[in-house]
Amino acid sequence: MPDSEDKVVDNPTFLKHIKFFFEAIDVDHMAPRGVDLATYDGVKANATSIYSQTKSGSMPPEPERRWSQNRVKTFKNWISGGFPMGNAPAKVLKTMSSLAATARGAFRRDAENMSKEEVERLALAFRTIMERSPDHPQSYFALADIHWFPTPVNCLHHEERYNPWHRIFIDRFEAGLQSVPKCEDIKLPYWNVVRQPPAWMFQPPFDSYTLQRDAAPQYPAGTATKRHSAKKIHAEMVDRDVEGTIKGALDSPTFESFTQQIEQAHDDGHVSCGPAMQTPDIAAFDPIFWLFHCNWERMWWAWQQRHQAVSLEDFRKTLSIPDMDWLDVAPFNELKPFTETAAQAIDASQYAYEDPAASLFSALARVARGNISADQSFSIPRKARLSIRVKNIARLAISGSFEVQLLADGKRVARHAFFQGTEPKKCPSCVKRETVNVDLRANRSDMAGKKLEVRIEVLGAKGKDRVLALSEVGNPTINIRELLVAE
């Protein structure tokens, strides 16, 4: 590549510049030699060798692909600068937007914007699969029970495979809707959870579902799903600052950070909806679950667009740690009961949503963080925000979802929920992570000079919350740090 097309970057970062220097052929060619060009750690570990070989022209081997002197200088600047990870560019690919604009119905719609006719057609699909026998593989009961009850418990929460598993799950349900005659091209709409759910979501058949057979002893046949009113759901979402948590997730430079924060927003969203959605037990039987989860799928899709991680190859470059067994190595990459593996769920090019990915980032403010790369300049906000981590909560001792609260002189100043089933010891994913951390954020002004305490409440499906003694959950500890804003 001539220097005229490849300008020298004085302060390059891996996510914004360096990762794009390596093509698929380079990654494949060097992998058998023990050189990993697909990840930050791999490139960093081999940086001096890469610099020497690209400078001499011995790599890449094809003359037409050899690096320009300017690119070599940029790579040298990255080494000299201390290998900064940086943040991915805010550029958003337009592929999905173009697809969405070409054909009405080829994309997943915003539930708020659906016409009366579109809602009626969706209702036909929902009603039809709800009326099918539970033994039908594409019945509502059979599809919903994949999530939690009836056993075996399959779904994966609070781990790396959370997003891949739910992507496949949503695809399966959408395929079930498409199995209904005259609905072959229907797409599952999404509910943008930062806004109040539209009225039609509280009308039959979207308002409730009645179990056709026992899901568990505590959920016998005839149990009807229940939820809060639209107004209360929205109020709970606002009080838990679900929108703020989403913004932090979308601004995350690495997949690990995105997953942790988007699942926090997901957990708060679940408990905000009320009884059936409050724990995984029968959450998927509540029809709102599907529109709710389609929105989280949209969040991951948009994050992949922004960080140019739509393909598996590019997605790997957003991983901050070299251990990728969950992505590549059986059985750690399995998404039971689905046949797909985690790696096979990464490609986002087949999806399209009504709102283009760019719309999710157009108003995205710089988000305060507790951990910022040392290569970046940063500032401390005038109105200081603190991150309070409640560490090592013994979650297996808690039956159901719970909420961690921070109190200042007895007044609640921060809260976050943790979404889990009422029988966590029977959940393989839960058992693997016996203790968990929950991060809270609060203004220093709300805490200074006041008596602070942490409270953990079990969220009762019947509205009977119970405050736990901290000794019941392993006597968790607390870490506090000030949040910074990258410039």
Describe the structure.
This protein is 32% helix and 11% strand. It is of the alpha+beta class and 487 residues long. It has three domains: 3-80, no CATH class; 95-361, Di-copper center containing domain from catechol oxidase (di-copper center containing domain from catechol oxidase); 378-486, Immunoglobulin-like (Sandwich). It has a four-stranded antiparallel beta sheet with strand order 4-3-6-7. A three-stranded antiparallel beta sheet has the order 5-2-8, with no helix packed on it. α9 crosses α11 (255-273) and α10 (242-250) packs antiparallel against α11. The longest helix has 19 residues, at 255-273. 40% of the residues are buried.
Quick description:
The protein is of the alpha+beta class and 487 residues long. The protein has helices spanning 24-30, 40-45, 47-56, 69-80, 95-102, 116-131, 140-144, 162-178, 230-239, 242-250, 255-273, 288-306, 312-316, 325-328, 357-361, 428-432; strands at residues 378-379, 385-394, 402-408, 411-418, 435-443, 452-458, 466-468, 477-482, 485-486.
